[in-house]
Amino acid sequence: MKHVVAALRRGEPVVLPTDTVYGLCCDASTREPAERLYALKGRESAQPSALLAASVDDLLRAVPELDRGSVRPGPYTVILPNPAHRFSWICGTTPEKIGVRVPDLPPQAAEVVRALGVVVATSANLHGAGDSVSLEDLAPELRALPHIDVGPLPGTSSTVLDCTGPEPVVLRQGAGAVPSSAS
Fold first, then answer.
1. Could you point out which of 11, 22, 80, 119 has its C-alpha 20 to 30 Å from the C-alpha of 112?
2. What is the spatial distance between Cα 112 and Cα 83, in angstroms, rounded to a whole number?
3. What is the pLDDT of residue 95?
4. Cα separation, 34 vs 120, whole angstroms
5. pLDDT digit string (tens) for 131-156?
6. How far is the C-alpha of 90 from the C-alpha of 106, rounded, in Å?
């Protein structure tokens, strides 16, 4: 795990398991690691990525303006207001909104993420490819990255909820149950 933390601190992308699929992650503290991650994935910078934390407290230390009650731990990516435009380099064209995720990480991945506080995370695939439920599913250039292997994962991406309006809106149905107030 130390080699994965060291790679993140050098600004390199890594592959970490989550509670749903493998994620392509990088240090969130500056723009450059996110730019490397986007280039490797073949993703346009206009597309947002999520800020991933091992706990709600870690997330709130990074983005203190967030409403604790709006953060939904588990297989959810929640889009919340970002009034201070924190981590704007992962927010695509909407720096006033930020996607956040507090998954039930495998212990090894949680230890890595805790070492940095928060990381940028997106699915560990090349743009347009399917999600990776095991390291064998990764494209060769992603498989060569520092990684943590915990074997096969459930394989359904997180549910994405936009909570920036008056009612939550489901942008992608995934592994998390949809709250009754979301449509």
1. 80
2. 28
3. 97
4. 7
5. 899 999 999 999 999 999 999 999 99
6. 24
Sign of CA dihedral 67, 50, 173, 93: positive
Is the pTM higher than 0.90?
A: yes
Give the burial string for 16-46 (b: 16+ CB within 10 Å, else e). bbbbbbbbbbbbbbeeebbeebbebbebeee
Q: Tens of pLDDT along 69-116?
A: 999 999 999 999 999 999 999 999 999 999 999 999 999 999 999 999
* Residues 6 or more apart whose Cβ sits within 8 Å of residue 154: 19, 20, 21, 133, 175
What six digits make up the tokens of 144? 């060569």
Q: Which residue has the higher pLDDT, 165 or 178?
A: 165
* N-terminal to C-terminal alpha carbon distance within the chain: 40
How far, CA to CA in Å, does 11 sit from each of 34, 162, 163? 8, 29, 30
